[in-house]
Amino acid sequence: MNTCVRCKSQFEHLPDDIKFYKEYDFPSPELCPDCRHQNRIAYRNERVLYRRNCDLCGNLVVSIFSINTPFPVYCSDCWWGNKWDAIFYGCEFDFSRPFFEQFFELRDKVPRQTLNNSKSINSEFCSQCIGNKDCYLLFAADENQNSMHSYWINRCIDVYNSSWLSDCTLCIDLVDAENCYKCVYSQDLINCSECYFSYDLIGCKNCFACAGLRNKDFYIKNQPHTKEEYFKKINSLNLGSYNFYSEVKKLFRQFHLNIPHKYVHIFNSEKCLGDYISNSNDCNYCFDVFESEKCSYAFNLVHQLYNIRDCSFATEARNIYQGMSTAGENVFFSTLNWFSIDTWYSDLTQNCSDVFGCVGLRHKKFCIFNKQYSESDYYNLKKRIIEHMKKTGEWGKFFPVKYSPFAYNETIAQDYFPLSKNEVLSRGWKWHNMDQRDFKPQIYQIPDNIQSVSDNICDEVLACDECGKNYKVLLSELKFYKQMNYPVPRKCTDCRFTERLKLRNPRKLFNRECAKCLKNIKSTYSPNRLEKVYCEECYLKEVY
Q1: Helices 375-392 & 99-107, crossing angle to 10 degrees?
Q2: Total of domains in the chain
């Protein structure tokens, strides 16, 4: 048993991980898996956007970087253009100084891209996205159309205020759904249509306030109705009312506590521990992992991985350790490395191989600190630097949080490991002060029912009921709410996201007993939770 040097919690190294460390001559981590995860995602800003000018062309752009960054920030056209090359920032390694100190001096000279939002049309205010059209405030979302205020939705059309969705249409307030149509405020739905306030449904249609059903139609609170009875009751409800909507949400959360919950969400997988794992094998303590094998401590939307240890946000990757936002092979202690091979302690590399301590390189090989070397000189110098890092105690450690290009509360680390300003500053990390004086009080009174809301609301500045932050309602957004008979949200986009995030279980595994057969299970439901949690066998007997 080991003690984390930061949080003092007890943790063990998995046997396969120990073999991995020995194979690559890495020291065993001193931090527990949670603290290692926290370090990585403290380098990822997804949802905090700024207006600033490109430091090359001068155009006003949307960026994940504020105007106070020490490094230049280029718009996408300039960053991918041919007016600069990161190799020009190359420098010699100084063996009299620590590695990290020198690396981040280099990092602060190399231009960075305003935000990652490629191949998109009319979707300027999106980040970590590819291929969206007519979208607004989407994050980590690809190939969507006419969608807003959502996180990790893929191939969706007309989806609002939702998270972790794929192939859905005309949906709002959904969490963890696949191939659904016209569903509202529901969670864990697959192949469903016109379901409201429901949980854990597969193949269902026209269900209201239901949970744990399979292939059912015209159900209310898990009770069957005729088609005529169902629509008569549904049409009598004031669904467009904000007060009614809020009350039904509370009743729904209470109702589904009495329905059996599967201990984790693992599908078509073998020898896996974690949650939301599908089509995978031998993945331990992994969360949101798809089509992967032989992984441990992989988090945050990773798929098609093999032999991964401690990784967040990755795709088509093999032999990765301590990586954040990665695609490639043999990538170690690195961030934002795409389709690179044999990459060590590097950042923002594209299609590179055999690079060590590099930043912003594209299509380069045998480089150290952005300087070109011959193959033999590269390997000799790399070996010397590794020995130097062992002496300084830096070898085998991920980049320190204090060097992140973002303040801690700008990153998703604040979502999963929330800290106060004092806690952040006491650790020597950065904090972004949001100027409360910029918040304007809301004067406009939003009508309770969406059908009574006029287009004038789009000219008003609204204030979040939760945090006071201002937000707007766009005209296209208002039309969608009226089409769905959905009341105008009273919270800002960030607080809506936080509310959806809380619907998901924490990324931890707890020891508890199946509520039916009393078998010991490892579940993301802590023992003090009120839900009835069943093991796989008991759950399948109950719902099928």
Answers
A1: 120
A2: 1
